Amino acid sequence: MYSIFVFLAMDVSIVILTLNEYEGVKEILPRIQDEWANEILFVDGGSTDGTVEFARESGYQVVQQSKPGRGNAFREGLAKTSGDIIVFFSPDGNEVPEDIPKLVDRVKDGYDMAIASRFASGAETDDATPLHWFGNRLFTVTINSLFGGSLMDAVNGFRAIRRDCMESIDTDADHFDIEVQMTMRALNDGYSICEIPTHEPERIGGEPELSTFIDGMRLMRTILREYHTTKLR
Ligand SMILES: Nc1nc2c(ncn2[C@@H]2O[C@H](COP(=O)(O)OP(=O)(O)OP(=O)(O)O)[C@@H](O)[C@H]2O)c(=O)[nH]1
Ligand SMILES: [Mg+2]
């Protein structure tokens, strides 16, 4: 009974990651409910399109990243929030905000990390090209076989994680390889991960920062480096 109260009492922080996402933010922000979290913080990578101004005018606190890259944004979000559970959310239209409380509930149920999966049974994606689909399958199957997981989407950044798990895995990936590093380190250290099926709509406006080729190569390099340092040492 005591543990149920502990989980109910867990504070939630939502970290919203932006780099020139004005159009997405304008459409998605009104759908984020204050009661989903104790704290909502923007971490911005240097937007010049009005994203930061719009977020501040809407009453949100915005932290400007001191170091570039999405991985650094995750760590600055961790450092600047205090919740026991942290949800990383990207308001570019690819993530359905109504999944936020569902992810939080799975962590409150006892999982260390909950990932919104675009490829689990019942999930769908309107955004993944055949090349992205192939890359995602390749990375996910490689991570499962090297680190003993049974995930369907090891890559998606939309996830909730316990603060103590995030602190303990002590990430150092700087860019779009942050998510695969989180997944691999959590699996390697025996943390429990679950997935919820999600719907990935198309991006709303703006330009993707992710480069299929450069970031794809970086992800594979990070996966192999992680395997080398954790399993072959
Ligand atoms: N704070 C911060 N956010 C970033 C950075 N790079 C990208 N983002 C945000 O991370 C989210 C995902 O980036 P995208 O470029 O859309 O990557 P993606 O979702 O894999 O690619 P698409 O499917 O084409 O949209 C968006 O909300 C971006 O604004 C960064 O360096 N810092
Ligand atoms: Mg996107």
Give a description of the structure.
By secondary structure, this protein is of the alpha/beta class. The chain has a single domain (2-231), classed as Spore Coat Polysaccharide Biosynthesis Protein SpsA, Chain A. 42% of the residues lie in helices and 17% in strands. The chain is built from nine helices and nine strands. The chain has helices at 2-8, 22-28, 51-57, 70-80, 100-108, 130-147, 163-169, 178-188, 212-231; strands at residues 12-18, 39-44, 61-64, 85-89, 113-117, 124-125, 159-162, 193-197, 199-200. The strands form two sheets. A seven-stranded mixed sheet has the order 3-2-1-4-7-5-8, with helices on both faces. Helix 3 (51-57) links the parallel strand 2 and strand 3. Helix 6 (130-147) runs parallel beside helix 9 (212-231). The protein is globular, with a radius of gyration of 17 Å. It binds guanosine-5'-triphosphate and magnesium ion. The site of magnesium ion has 5 residues, from loops. One of its GO terms (molecular function) is transferase activity. This is Glycosyltransferase involved in cell wall bisynthesis. Keywords: Transferase.
